[in-house]
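Researcher: Quick test of sequence recovery. Tokens follow.
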């Protein structure tokens, strides 16, 4: 009876006979660099950082917007921006790079070089693991006997199957690999010199021209599905750098009550409409620490799908704090979209930190070190207790209460 239900197909080795026969016309064509989500069935693509994909529930959904809140100096947010574009080059996706500060051609030239084999990644970490093992052997710590047989806590969040590629930040992508992809550029100073400045719909000139360029590429290249038979389907990766800054002609970072208070939110509203109707994904970096009106930032967060904030330790008290000596900053996941479900697909890890190694940028689970020995002065212990309060307020509920954790 099962064979009759499946149209006379006989079960093969390792395959069940209860399979639904799907017409070839209704099957989804496989797109390079994507995979369907097992939770909500949405098509996912990698952000370029496997540890970030795991934190976000497996990757970025096609048709969604990833908002990165920049750190104060824009060092690490710019690195995530480059990871997203570099992953598109490796997967053969089309790129659209927009900036008002740096030439898009220069941004592509500074993208990190991909590591196509896991063996290369192991070679990168060989020296660092050797140094760490020497330090652990030299400074071996005696712990209670009942904790000796406990399994070690995984530092970096790991997914069931790795998605994406690894990159070497000490090297740049080869020119041959850049020539093999198709990309589009939007440099605001060039657009202002070529076209007259026209303000429409209470939106700044830069935002208007940027939306027109994105819409034109989506329609002409067929990313909206208007030309399904003429070419193979592909993904358009859109990267917009430092949106909302003064260079874009917006004054949200200059005044508490800006003149164009709804300009940025209108841009995001129209952009999300373009993303929903096309095979595309977008990453935007925003200097959130410069936006004085918090109501505007709340609207920007609500108009985004995924919001990730970076908090760098550069120039802060945590830079010299012994709790954070192995990390360069904290990562705060503010918002994750609910796709085809009532709850969002999030990782169980809430306290996250990032570190920039010699060649790799990784996101790891943040752990508090054990209490110091009895020979340490009382003042240093008080510093650790204050540090745990900072940790609980800045990165989740790692330490609860007024007292620090005792072992």
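Model:
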């Amino acid at each position: 009876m099962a064979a009759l239900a499946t149209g006379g197909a006989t079960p093969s080795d390792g395959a069940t006979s209860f399979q639904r026969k799907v017409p070839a016309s209704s099957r989804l064509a496989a797109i390079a660099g994507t995979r369907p989500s097992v939770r909500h069935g949405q098509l996912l693509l990698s952000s370029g950082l496997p540890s970030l994909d795991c934190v976000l529930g497996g990757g970025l959904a096609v048709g969604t917007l990833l908002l990165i809140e920049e750190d104060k100096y824009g060092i690490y947010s710019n690195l995530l921006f480059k990871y997203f574009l570099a992953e598109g080059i490796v997967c053969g996706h089309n790129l659209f790079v927009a900036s008002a500060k740096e030439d898009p051609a220069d941004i592509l030239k500074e993208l990190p070089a991909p590591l196509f084999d896991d063996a290369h990644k192991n070679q990168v970490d060989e020296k660092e693991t050797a140094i760490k093992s020497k330090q652990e052997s030299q400074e071996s710590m005696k712990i209670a006997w009942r904790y000796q047989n406990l399994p070690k806590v995984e530092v970096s969040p790991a997914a069931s199957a790795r998605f994406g590629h690894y990159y070497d930040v000490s090297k740049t992508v080869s020119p041959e690999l850049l020539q093999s992809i198709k990309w589009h550029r939007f440099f605001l100073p060039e657009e202002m010199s070529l076209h007259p400045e026209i303000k429409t719909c209470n939106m700044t000139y830069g935002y208007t021209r940027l939306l027109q360029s994105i819409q034109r590429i989506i329609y002409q290249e067929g990313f909206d599905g208007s030309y399904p038979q003429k070419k193979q389907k592909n993904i358009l990766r859109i990267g917009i750098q430092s949106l909302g800054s003064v260079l874009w002609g917006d004054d949200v970072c200059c005044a508490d009550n800006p003149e164009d208070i709804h300009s940025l939110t209108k841009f995001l509203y129209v952009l999300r409409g373009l993303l929903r109707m096309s095979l595309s994904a977008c990453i935007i970096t925003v200097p959130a620490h410069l936006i004085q009106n918090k109501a505007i930032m709340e609207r920007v967060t609500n108009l985004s799908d995924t919001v990730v904030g970076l908090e760098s330790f550069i120039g802060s008290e945590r830079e010299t704090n012994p709790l954070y000596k192995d990390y360069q900053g904290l990562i705060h996941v503010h918002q994750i979209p609910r796709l085809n479900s009532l709850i969002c697909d999030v990782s169980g890890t809430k306290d996250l930190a990032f570190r920039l190694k010699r060649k790799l940028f990784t996101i790891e689970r943040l752990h508090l070190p054990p209490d110091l020995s009895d020979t340490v002065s009382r003042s240093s212990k008080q510093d650790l207790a204050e540090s745990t309060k900072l940790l609980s307020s800045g990165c989740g509920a790692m330490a609860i209460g007024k007292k620090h954790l005792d072992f």
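The CA atoms of residues 73 and 312 lie 8 Å apart.
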